[in-house]
Amino acid sequence: MNGKTSADWKPYVALLFMPLFFTSNLIFGRAATSAVEPWTLAFLRWTFAFLLLLPFTGMDILRHAKLLKAQWKTVTLLGLLGMWICGALVYYALHFTTATNATLIYTSSPILILLMEWIFRGRRMGLRESIGVCFAMAGVVLIIVKGSLAVLLGLSFNAGDLIIGFCALSWAGYSVLLKRSVFAEVPTLTLFAVVAGAGALTLLPFMVWEVAVREAFPTSFEAWRSIAGIVLFASLAAFSLFQYGIKTVGPSVTGLFMYLLPPYGVLMAVVFLGEDLQPYHFAGFFLVMGGLILATAPIDLLRRLKTRIAG
């Protein structure tokens, strides 16, 4: 192993599981849609996540309480974008579309982040990035229209696919907003806990409505198994490994492992949910992945990473 110790490989092995846990949200969510109402599912997810994080972040929350209180509108908006829209609305969309479609469409979020930074922050995009954006967006459109020109011309789109597209846009907005310098001094895990709590509060009235009107509070073992999977794997484990990656190998290298989201998601949808793959899925996958790597992957970093692993 060219003198490498197990410690050298530990972060990379751990990061192989990170996108798997992130993707599990759509798999657990798709499985839970028949047993749990979407806003109730999202509320329970983020409430339990907040409560489990509180013992580890409580002191820092108190330490930064003045800043967080001053930025309560931004924190609430983050909770609305990241937990209400990208939580409950995603679960609602999964009533109408497949986890495969949702995974591939949601993967376009980094592309949308580039576009939002270009539009609102004046970020310049080079030729390579522009071509990558075009490829990725073409892949998303191909998936939404199911590879059919008739669907495109007839504007007869699947509502779930369109909602997932809106959620991907909201996640891009969440990511851009999260980069605001005002939060620079707040530890990432602490900010995540506060936003999770804010998101749970935005979901609370809708959860109450679902329980009161639809009498749909989860009671079955299958429902709570899905909820536990979403809380433990898709929320806490995924984010903890993301933080571990940033700490040990840096944000740029950690970001490269997020390119594993589409293959992991599609594979899990086929294996665990029995979903079928169509030719347009493969075409859309290669367009989205190719465009994503072309637009966002730092080529020099890829070379350094290859040299580091090989050497």
TrEMBL record:
<feature type="transmembrane region" description="Helical">
    <location>
        <begin position="223"/>
        <end position="244"/>
    </location>
</feature>
<feature type="transmembrane region" description="Helical">
    <location>
        <begin position="189"/>
        <end position="211"/>
    </location>
</feature>
<dbReference type="Pfam" id="PF00892">
    <property type="entry name" value="EamA"/>
</dbReference>
<keyword id="KW-1133">Transmembrane helix</keyword>
<feature type="domain" description="EamA">
    <location>
        <begin position="12"/>
        <end position="144"/>
    </location>
</feature>
<protein>
    <submittedName>
        <fullName>EamA family transporter</fullName>
    </submittedName>
</protein>
<feature type="transmembrane region" description="Helical">
    <location>
        <begin position="132"/>
        <end position="153"/>
    </location>
</feature>
<feature type="transmembrane region" description="Helical">
    <location>
        <begin position="280"/>
        <end position="302"/>
    </location>
</feature>
<dbReference type="InterPro" id="IPR037185">
    <property type="entry name" value="EmrE-like"/>
</dbReference>
<dbReference type="InterPro" id="IPR051258">
    <property type="entry name" value="Diverse_Substrate_Transporter"/>
</dbReference>
<keyword id="KW-0472">Membrane</keyword>
<feature type="transmembrane region" description="Helical">
    <location>
        <begin position="74"/>
        <end position="94"/>
    </location>
</feature>
<feature type="domain" description="EamA">
    <location>
        <begin position="160"/>
        <end position="295"/>
    </location>
</feature>
<feature type="transmembrane region" description="Helical">
    <location>
        <begin position="12"/>
        <end position="31"/>
    </location>
</feature>
<dbReference type="GO" id="GO:0005886">
    <property type="term" value="C:plasma membrane"/>
</dbReference>
<dbReference type="InterPro" id="IPR000620">
    <property type="entry name" value="EamA_dom"/>
</dbReference>
<feature type="transmembrane region" description="Helical">
    <location>
        <begin position="100"/>
        <end position="120"/>
    </location>
</feature>
<keyword id="KW-1003">Cell membrane</keyword>
<feature type="transmembrane region" description="Helical">
    <location>
        <begin position="43"/>
        <end position="62"/>
    </location>
</feature>
<feature type="transmembrane region" description="Helical">
    <location>
        <begin position="256"/>
        <end position="274"/>
    </location>
</feature>
<keyword id="KW-0812">Transmembrane</keyword>
<feature type="transmembrane region" description="Helical">
    <location>
        <begin position="159"/>
        <end position="177"/>
    </location>
</feature>
